[in-house]
Amino acid sequence: MAGSSAPRVGVLALQGDFREHLHVLTSLGATAVPVRREAELAEVDGLVIPGGESSVMDKLSRMFGLAEPLKAAIASGLPVYGTCAGLIMLADRILDGMAGQQTLGGLDVAVRRNAFGSQRESFESELDVPAFDGEPVHAVFIRAPVVESVGPLASPLGVLPDGRVVAVEQGALLGTSFHPEMTHDYRFHARFLDKARTFASAR
Ligand SMILES: NC(=O)CC[C@H](N)C(=O)O
């Protein structure tokens, strides 16, 4: 019954809008817990990395000794969904990072921080996501990164009308430039939970 069980998933809770993600995941029937320590990470079958400020999340994850366990978890196939700053954390390559800024990596993409410039710090757009049936996704962007290039291991999931990639997938990893937790459309979270259920039933 892998498809109907309630997966136990975490939200990285060092910084950013982790409470909103905990709320969404709980509303979708998951058991959702904040993750701040390695021992908490070891107990989840999936992890959301929220929006916030990626340079701060990078520093805190290294300071708290979580960066290496997170990298190991990603390498072991743990499903991880990164939104906005979380997408930056998952990217193998970062453009316009702060001096010395590192990422966890995992997604074979290059992302550019704050790619939409100060004129468009936040905006909303309808996004066609061919992997989802039905309505386009109403996407909310806040000082958002863009996926500047997609390597051969990753696939674009969502593209703006001007061709810029803002959602990507690679196996158990999912990343969006925008914030579904701020809307009522939780199809990306549901897709992440499907991956978490698959991971839980395989271990
Ligand atoms: N809403 C967000 O997560 C903003 C991301 C932020 N600009 C960063 O560089 O991490």
TrEMBL record:
UniProt xrefs under CDD domains: GATase1_PB
Amino acids binding L-glutamine: G52, E53, S54, R113, I142, R143
Pfam families in the cross-refs: SNO (PF01174)
PROSITE patterns: GATASE_COBBQ, GATASE_TYPE_1, PDXT_SNO_1, PDXT_SNO_2
Subunit structure comment from the entry: In the presence of PdxS, forms a dodecamer of heterodimers. Only shows activity in the heterodimer.
Biological role stated in the UniProt entry: Catalyzes the hydrolysis of glutamine to glutamate and ammonia as part of the biosynthesis of pyridoxal 5'-phosphate. The resulting ammonia molecule is channeled to the active site of PdxS.
Record-stated family: Belongs to the glutaminase PdxT/SNO family.
Protein name: Pyridoxal 5'-phosphate synthase subunit PdxT
Organism name: Frondihabitans cladoniiphilus
Species lineage: Bacteria, Bacillati, Actinomycetota, Actinomycetes, Micrococcales
